[in-house]
């Protein structure tokens, strides 16, 4: 599924208006969505940065709701419920940039040579632990394949070498990511 420039602009508008309304204690806006693409169920993440530093990032890995609803819900989650950060305050709005990542379905892999750094994101799971890193994380932090695997294990709360163990499941996905800085 390709997201057009107009649909990307709509999703970013949803993110910005939703976060702005919520942080200013106003009613969350209702949106009328015409695009069939934005009505399709898709996984997506919303990333918020403040002066190019992560300020919040949350998403659905799997397709649970229509894309536009997922993006609206994840905008609120990234801004106010990311456990790594305090809830956003209104005086931060001017310093924020937003990014949306629309995910492809997950594909389980057996051989890490299938991972293309910069193209694929990683989702690693074992037992009750799981962690995900978006494709752009590897690029932003200059990670090679092995360091990308180790960092995803770390995010999952697993030993850094857990990706080499047969009990660990590794999934790849791609993401169409865009924002007001891309």
Can you give a write-up of this model?
The protein has 182 residues and is of the alpha+beta class. It has two domains: 5-103, Hypothetical protein ph0010, domain 1 (Glycoprotein, Type 4 Pilin), CATH 3.30.700; 107-177, Dna Ligase, domain 1 (2-Layer Sandwich). The protein is 30% helix and 27% strand. It is built from five helices and seven strands. The chain has helices at residues 5-23, 36-39, 67-80, 135-140, 145-155, and strands at 44-50, 53-60, 96-103, 107-109, 120-126, 129-133, 169-179. Strands 1, 2, 3, 4, 5, 6 and 7 form a seven-stranded antiparallel sheet that branches. Helix 1 packs parallel to helix 3. The chain is globular, with a radius of gyration of 17 Å. It starts with a helix and ends with a strand.
């Amino acid at each position: 599924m390709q997201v057009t420039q107009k649909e990307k602009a709509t999703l970013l508008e949803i993110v910005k208006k939703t976060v702005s309304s919520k942080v200013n204690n106003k009613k969350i806006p209702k949106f009328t969505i015409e695009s069939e693409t934005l009505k399709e169920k898709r996984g997506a993440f919303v990333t918020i940065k403040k002066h190019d530093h992560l300020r919040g990032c949350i998403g659905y890995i799997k397709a649970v709701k229509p894309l536009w609803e997922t993006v609206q819900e994840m905008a609120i989650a990234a801004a106010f419920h990311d456990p790594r950060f305090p809830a956003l305050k209104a005086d931060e709005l001017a310093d924020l940039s937003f990014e949306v990542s629309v995910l492809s379905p997950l594909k389980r892999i057996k051989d890490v040579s299938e991972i293309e750094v910069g193209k694929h994101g990683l989702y690693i799971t074992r037992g009750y632990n799981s962690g995900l890193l978006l494709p752009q994380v590897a690029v932003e932090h200059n990670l090679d394949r092995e360091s990308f695997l180790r960092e995803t294990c770390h995010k999952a709360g697993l030993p850094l070498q857990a990706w080499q163990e047969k009990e660990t499941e590794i999934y790849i996905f791609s993401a169409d990511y865009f924002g007001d800085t891309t």
